[in-house]
Amino acid sequence: MRRIIRHKAFGQGDMTSFAETSIQYLKGVGPARMKVFERLGVSTIEDLLYFFPRRYEDRRKLTPILDLKPGEWQTVVGVVTAKGGRRTFFNKKHVFELVLADDHAKVYCVWFNQPYLENYFHPGDRVVLYGRVDVFKDRIQIVSPEYEVLGEGDEGLSTARIVPIYPLTRGITQRYLRRVVHACLEAYAGALPDVIPEDVRARQKLEPVSESIRQIHFPEDQASRDKAERRIGFDEFFLFQVSVILRRISLVQKLGTAHFMPPAFFERFEKAFPFRLTGAQKKSMAEVSKDMSMKRPMLRLLQGDVGSGKTVVSFFGCLAAVTNGKQAAIMAPTEILAQQHYETFVRYFEDGPFGEVRTALLKSGLKKKEKEALCAKIREGVVDVVIGTHALLEEGVEFKALSFVTIDEQHKFGVKQRAVLSAKGEGPDILVMTATPIPRTLCLTLYGDLDVSVIDEKPAGRGTVKTYHFTGEQADGVYKRVAEWVAKGTQAYVVYPVIEESEHEDRKAAVAMYERFCKDDFKNFKVGLVHGKLPRAEALRVMAEFKRGKLDILVTTTILEVGIDVPNANVMVIEHAERFGLSQLHQLRGRIGRSEKNAVCILLGDAQTEDGRRRLEAVVKTGNGFKIAEEDLLIRGPGQYFGRHQHGLNELRVVNPLTQIDVLEAARKEAMLLVKSDPLLKTHRVVRDTICKRYPEYLERVLAG
User: Fold this and answer.
1) Highest-confidence segment of 9-23, 295-309, 387-401, 685-699
2) Counting runs of H as helices and runs of E as strands, what totals does the chain give?
3) Which residues is 555 bridged to in the sheet?
4) Among 384, 404, 663, 683, which residue has the fewest nearby CB atoms (within 10 Å)?
5) Number of domains, the chain
6) How far apart are CA 103 and CA 191, in angstroms?
7) DSSP H helical segments within 222-350, as ranges?
8) pLDDT-derived band at 311, boundaries 50, 70, 90
9) CATH no. for residue 124?
10) Cα dist. 137→70, 141, 195, 298 in Å?
């Protein structure tokens, strides 16, 4: 947690220490509101200045209601003339309707299951709405639009201009947030230090950072906004690239283990499996083999869709280490996945073509004496391959000769955890794997400290996975169809979302539906339930029963992207699919279709935003993980795409690498020039201090001297 300097009054104090200046002293914030801002990740002046809009609305010339076009997403302003709430006859859903009018026409607005809106809107309110325009029973309507009630004093920031639309949390409105951001800009933006070296700014023709920050929040026009985005985006890319390049240099200077793998090694490895390896798997193995034969440590990213066979490549590295008299480790994000890797490895290799390979499973649930005994064996070198969870990172886990490490689902971990595991060996080779593909051109730039391998083929003999989208009102028909499929012998998942803010309600909904399924829709089948609050032993027991075929249907709120592998589970229903991220939906779908049988994934949900609609359409349209990744990056932008675990990558809050590759390449070129001329940043102290603060996981050891 950052130390917060408490100033006596708004505007006082050191203007350069934005990162330590609390926002609670801004006019209109205070201690209580500051806690609400913290839910948005905003604690300081710097946080607020760099808390950018997620989109903009051009309210300089709004669409008259008479000119609204069905099928398009549009912004409209008008006055509330009528409102009312009711419940539907069939499923008792609450429906709130609002009539909005301007001088020439009116539009109907509809929200489902949001009864609190009855007390939010009042006749005479002037309201701005944004949503998809439809025609229903010969009337123009907008379903579940975003809304904003305009008040006195809002004209300057909320109308007659290009208006910023920010991410929100409960307790903060767009109007209030705009006022606070504007006040912060007026007081502090002019004193923002320029981090980018002057010669770089001149070559790249970059706008002053203070003006760019103002224009990115409240742009005068599209051209000003574009210039501001390029300037802030260049800063983000440049600083991140400097850190990545420095880290890469530090890694290649280390000494590791040069592993020897004769041709016979490859032949024995392939013969261990009852299936043929794909060309992509063999290519990735060759790349790993080349890296592992060198004296410097390997640091390689292996990416490929769920079910593409990445784990086989990981096993290849483990056996290369073992046959060279060393130890190997595989770290997975969940106990279930670690158990699965362990069982698979033991099946093929514990007493197979490479002789006895001593394998152990290290998990947090072990009893103290069991864990101590296992750790002693690892320390003494009695165990060759250790497969586990975060427990591998604990201080008591020491290796005798660790030379190869795999980190599975690397986006679930961070750079720091990767470094902790690496430090348990003498420069071990590291393979990080992800089933959330990133377009290759971006990998080469954003993961500059990693070499990249790609598995873009699926094993032969896999069935197809077809995806369909149905609305919530069509759920009963979907359940009936699922029952028909299960009756024919397949197993099915029914997955519910768990969102942090409504975790309790989400869990209650899943439990209630589980009870309904048992009594009604799936009463002729064996149904299991797993959610995050179940005791760990109980959750593992239920999942094991499902895997063994003792259960027909598994209802779960536990995210299964990195869950169990059940070849007979070929049906999945994802409830409230609009609440999942695009990569989550793709990962979930990857849990089915893992045998020769065809599979079906059904998305149940009602998209209430344009982004939600695009996510559902993308999953239905393609099963290609790389196309999904591109669409996800376009929809969300890099800040949300990379996630909080990849600290550093989530600093990319403005530019989108897919759409502004030119900015990215220019920043990388300048970063390389800078590092080449000043490897320890001794003459660029501002750059050094900034990246050490932003990316400590990357640089805390690199620049230690």
Assistant:
1) 387-401
2) 24, 23
3) 494, 529
4) 683
5) 4
6) 45
7) 222-252, 263-271, 279-292, 310-323, 335-349
8) very high
9) 2.40.50.140
10) 13, 10, 58, 64
- Report yes or no: 127 and 159 within 8 Å, Cβ to Cβ: no
Residues 2 and 131 in one domain: no
Answer yes or no: do 481 and 587 share one domain. yes
Q: Are residues 529 and 601 in the same domain?
A: yes
Provide the pairing of β-strand 553-556 with 599-604.
unpaired
The CA distance from 352 to 348, in Å, is 6
Mean pLDDT over the full length of the chain: 84
Domain that holds residue 16: 1-60+161-192
Angle in degrees, 0-180, between the axes of helices 610-621 and 625-636, rounded to the nearest 10: 170
Residue bearing the bigger pLDDT, 562 or 425? 425
Within a domain: 390: yes
Domain closes at, from 605, 638, 662: 605
Q: Say yes or no: 72 and 177 in one domain.
A: no
Q: Which of 86-100, 146-160, 282-296 has the highest mean pLDDT?
A: 282-296
pLDDT tens figures, 404-439: 999 987 555 666 777 788 889 888 999 988 877 666
- CATH code for position 572: 3.40.50.300
511/413 same-domain check? no
Q: Round to whole Å and give the CA distance between 416 and 264.
A: 37
Return the H-helix or E-strand segment holding 332: none
Distance separating alpha carbons of residues 82 and 100, to the nearest angstrom: 8
Q: What is the mean pLDDT of residues 331-335?
A: 86
Q: Which of residues 413, 434, 455 is at a domain's end?
A: 434
